[in-house]
Amino acid sequence: MTQRTERIDELLRQEIGSIITRDLADPRIGFVTITEVETARDLGHAKVWVSVIGSPEVRDAALTALGRAMPFIRRELGTRLRIRRIPELHLHADESLERGTRVLQLINEIEAGVDPTLTRPTEDTLPTPVPRLPHEGDAPEPPTEALDPGLPNARAGRQLRRRRGGRSGTRSGEAHTASPSWWPPMSVRLEGWLDAVPESVVARLRAAREVLVVSHENPDADTLGAAIGISEIMAARGARATLVCADVAPPIYDFLPGIRDIRTDPALDRAYDLLVIVDCGSLERVGSVRERHAELFAALPTVVIDHHASNQAAGADDWVDPVSAATCELVALLAVALDVPLEAGEGSLATALMAGIVMDTATFAHPNATPRTLAVSAALVGAGAPLAEISRLLYRSKPDVQLRLFGRVLERLQTSAEGLVIHATLTTADVEATGALTSHSEGIIDLLSQSEAAEVAILFKEAGAALTRISVRTRPGGVDATVLTGLFGGGGHARAAGASVPAGMTAALARVLPEAERLAAAVRR
User: Fold this and answer.
1) At a CB cut-off of 8 Å and minimum separation 6, what does 454 contact?
2) CA angle at residue 197 from 192 to 202, to 5 degrees?
């Protein structure tokens, strides 16, 4: 096998798995894993090895359904991949994981003194080792609140619940895994954190029946996830929400459940009784939709839910918590306070909220991830959020045009103030030359912030002949990013902030860099 075919095999494996997860609605297809793809050298044919959880009947039905779906999957691959030809796909059952699990089960039975010849395989055989039986001298087992590293993802949870004849319920503040019966019960309780949730916000949402939920312009995972989260909470309570954002969400967020329900304007035929604004550091961040519907916005009682330190909202029903790593963290606590299980929407609520937390913490790498953040995240994983897949989609999966855009921008990287300030520029010409989207600039500033010497990292993005947007990152214990961006009417967090400078690129550089250099030079370490 050549390196080229290995790359194609892995690409096909990922894309086929993605299509099965997102685009196939056949109820016979349960928890399916594409374990391997073997492609012929001429790309004419490919063996697709698949492992399916469930009884023999369930597995046979799933394989039959997948076999019939292969022509559709092949057509979808043709629209997604740029390779010479899409091979004919041949489905094969991969039983190696099942056999390995059975071997581990037999070993445990022998250790327990049970005659393995008297036992039969469990009905639901999983590609997960059976828990080792305790022996004398072993360390004590963790409490039930501990996080199980083998928790299934959201889709697995939905399928397992369906096989058992319904959805598993939860009590307020408790998220249970949708696990096979032989797994130890796991739950993560959040009652200890609910004092942070304002009673007035709970009361407003409890009484609302028709809610308008608004995200900020140029949306990211946190504002989108928070909006979807509010929608799922209202649906679980028998109410209804309309999701609005001034800009269409970038393709990177297509995996979010309910993303296609987001509109650019409110529905005119609905009698809204509450406006909820999520993750907007200021009302200006709502964007043009606020101007187009100023009368409606002014008439509705409003709840602001946000975590930006620069937010000046001070209404009786506003909830601004700068300690929170993400607005989605707050919405998760709000769900619990409203007695809505984090499993609501068959995993949609947990998935949407986890996406916002992963985005704003860089998968828990930023210093804003607190013990509460981790507790909330553990509860969301327990409710079915596929943490690893969300992290991969947001941080470790990029289209080629985006990588070309990164290279073009990083080639112009510059430093000043003896390396204390690092910056780069992104122009409209860069986007056009690479065939990228403006949203593909997400992530460049995080690369700049990896400079080992710089106190301040800035990305200047051309947004018009007389408008430049800046994204700022700073090192812990140094420059407060909101101080720098605040000089230009922006805001955000101490370590990450942004602003729109009403000037062209050259003028913006001349205005912003001296201020950044002044602040960076004042840092003492």
Assistant:
1) 415, 419, 420, 421, 422, 448, 475, 520
2) 125
Whole-angstrom distance, CA of residue 274 vs CA of residue 390: 31
Are 153 and 351 in contact by the 8 Å Cβ rule? The answer is no
Helix orientation angle between 327-337 and 371-382, rounded to the nearest 10 degrees: 60
Q: Are strands 421-426 and 456-464 parallel, antiparallel or unpaired?
A: parallel
3-state secondary structure of 131: coil
Residue 123 half-sphere exposure, CB side, CA atoms within 13 Å? 8
Residues 362, 395: Cα–Cα separation, whole Å = 8
Q: What would the two tokens of residue 517 be?
A: 């250099």
Are the C-beta atoms of 255 and 224 separated by less than 8 Å?
A: no
Q: Which residues of 299-325 are buried (b: 16+ CB within 10 A; e: fewer)?
A: ebebbbbbbbbbbebeeebbbbbeebb
pLDDT digits (tens, 9 = 90+) for 371-420: 999 999 999 999 999 999 999 999 888 889 999 999 999 999 999 999 99
Cα separation, 460 vs 423, whole angstroms: 8
Tokens 């597995």 appear where?
59
475 pLDDT higher than 60 = yes
Count CA within 13 A, CB hemisphere, residue 233: 30
The answer to whether residues 5 and 39 touch, using CB atoms and an 8 Å cutoff, is: yes
Residue 414 burial (C-beta neighbours within 10 Å; 0-12, 13-18, 19+): exposed
Residue 35's H or E segment, with its range, is: strand 32-39
Structural tokens at position 226: 């928070």
What is the Cα–Cα distance from 131 to 109, expressed in whole angstroms? Answer: 11
**pLDDT tens digits along 46-66:** 899 888 877 778 788 888 888
Q: Which two tokens stand for residue 51?
A: 């492992």
Q: What is the pTM of this model?
A: 0.62
Q: Are 228 and 243 in contact (CB under 8 A)?
A: yes
| Cα atoms in the Cβ-side hemisphere of radius 13 Å centred on 265 | 8
Q: Could you tell me which of 270, 274, 298, 268 has the C-alpha nearest to residue 208? A: 274
C-beta of residue 361 within 8 angstroms of C-beta of residue 373:
yes
415 near 454, Cβ under 8 Å?
yes
Instruction: Give Rg (Cα) of the chain.
Output: 25
Residue indicated by tokens 């993400």: 326
Structure tokens, 236: 């679980």
Quote the crossing angle between the two packed helices 348-361 and 387-395, to the nearest 10°: 50
Phi, psi of 469 (to 5 degrees): -95, 140
Question: What are φ and ψ of residue 299, in 5° steps?
Answer: -80, -25
Please check whether residue 494 is in contact with residue 481, taking contact to mean a CB–CB distance below 8 angstroms: yes
Which residues does 104 contact at the CB level (< 8 Å), separation at least 6?
Answer: 129, 130
CA pair distance 383, 48, nearest whole angstrom: 30
How many separate helices (H) and strands (E) can be counted in the chain? 17, 16
Return d(Cα 298, Cα 281) in angstroms, integer: 18
1, 37 in Cβ contact below 8 A? no
